[in-house]
Amino acid sequence: MKYSANPAVLRDSAAMSSVHTQLPRSLPLRRYSCCRAALPEARPASCSWAFAAAPPPLLCAATACQLLAGRAASVASLQVSLDFDSSPPVLATLSPAGVVFSFSGLSLPWAAVSHAADDSNGAHQVLESDGQLHLERLYAFSASTGRPVSLFPPPSGTGAPSALVAGFAMHRFGKDVCPRVDTQRKLGALAPLRPGARVLDCCTGLGYTAAAACARGCVVTTAELDDCMQALCEANPWSRVALGVALAQPGGLPALSAEQVGSLTQLRGDVASLVGAMPTSSFDRILHDPPSFSLAGQLYSAEFYAELARLLAPRGRLYHYIGDPSSAHGAKVAKGAIRRLLEAGFASACIDPHAHGIVASHEAFIRAARPEGSKQQRQPARAREGLRVRGAAAARFSYADDDSEE
User: Fold this and answer.
1) Where does the pLDDT of residue 405 fall: very low under 50, low under 70, confident under 90, or very high at 90 and above?
2) Fewest CB atoms within 10 A around its CB: which of 88, 298, 318, 343?
């Protein structure tokens, strides 16, 4: 797919065909035109597509609890969000039989609302059938990974959701951290990220990082293998906002001139195969945020790291998400990943604890970027030891005795 930050271009882009996968009918697919790259030596296939019609509204546990509380308080109507607050709320009229939303005029039974309230890890599409509304959980089984995928709503019901792949959340949730902040920290690890920079985003996912880089004026290339994740991105209102209006994201980003407008091209297929056809030194920044090692071990391999080293420009910078480096599992992943990155051709690598990842480059020395808004970046002496690793010093790096990722 090719995106331009120019809204007129977005409106005029046309869909030419559709991809059919074994997905629930409640999970709409994007329409796009592409030719899947089947062989590593084949030229990567890009696709140009536009968003399909707006997906059904989404009801999450937080909103369902809000409706049940209104019923208990004998409230006649209230305003609720059915897209995680990505657009203005809708009017919900509370009747004895159920909830009537202003966009439909049909009733959603209270039993369905109660069912959604009990599912804090899922989002439910509000669909019409037989003269009333019903719910279907936004969920699919991926043929690409052999694992289930679903949309994971924020606990408050507002803000960008994440996705669950085999039970693993794609973004960080916690104190002062949400998918939006997580995305900012990952891009911050690649600082400076200037307009015109060529960026490779290895895994599209819900599209947040690709869209945010595009919003900063970068020329972004991203790849996605999983048709289910692509469809989930289509059904997620925050993905549509981020990708469709890349320059209008919150966060106070400066306005860009016509010469600085970013672009986004998506490649469909396994990025481990697609990178082989890309020219050497074709990216200034690489953002590698893969699924867990158990789901995509090839994206943690020395062979794949060698391809990323080949693609990165001499003064470029790579960010590799590995999880919390202070945890036992994250430490094991970091140790093995840094060793293989150096063996693959990177000259230096270090841990970025703020972004929960590793940064690497071809330069002899690299350090984690200073977190946005901070005056200085200081780490405890114990945390600093062994974080910056280069050349022969790689053998001294150790967070754990066991080097395995699992």
Assistant:
1) very low
2) 88
- Does the pLDDT at position 373 exceed 70? no
Domain that holds residue 206: 2-53+158-396
In a domain, 406, yes or no: no
Q: Quickly state the pLDDT bin for 372 (edges 50, 70, 90).
A: low
Enter the tokens of residue 275.
């990178």
Q: Are residues 258 and 327 in the same domain?
A: yes
pTM for this structure?
Answer: 0.77
State yes or no: pLDDT of 13 exceeds 50: no
Instruction: Give CA separation, 12 vs 3, 9, 245, in Å.
Output: 11, 5, 14
Domain match, 213 and 304 both? yes
Q: Quick check: 125 pLDDT over 70?
A: yes
| Same-domain pairing of 387 and 242 | yes
- pLDDT value for 144: 77
Residues 242, 382 within the same domain: yes
